[in-house]
Specification:
Layout: E1 3-11, H1 16-26, E2 31-38, E3 42-49, H2 52-61, E4 65-77, H3 82-92, E5 97-103, E6 109-116, H4 119-128, E7 132-133, H5 136-140
Antiparallel strand pairs: 1-3, 1-4, 2-3, 4-6, 4-7, 5-6
Amino acid sequence: MFAKQLTVFIENRAGRLSEVLSVLGDNNVNILSQSLADTTEFGLLRLIVDDPALGKEKLSENGFSSLLSDVSIIQIPHKAGSLQALLKVIDQNGVNIEYMYGLSIKSDKAYIVLKASDIEKVDKIFTDRGVRTISCEELANI
């Protein structure tokens, strides 16, 4: 199963992040997880939200450049070595991890957002190994 990640391209200047978050908040789009990376001129704000299509629509209406992409949100045991064991299998199958970030949820499970070079192949790896993937809607209800 894939989830949709909303990526917003924002100028690296004071107040711009707040403007993005205001658009989402004003339209009741709830942020479940986020990652912000920057360069000297722009930032990449990666978001997992409860309604990715609405988020993209409202950001576009307000002049923000954004895109939706498929990512995997995986559930793994919250213990040392769990992520490394899974990444080893992905590596052995020749799939490149482009980026990933964690989610903060009060649970005995850990949740990771993962973007891979071959999302269908990595999804099969997850299915074959019994790794649970979840949707944005499921995440919103945890």
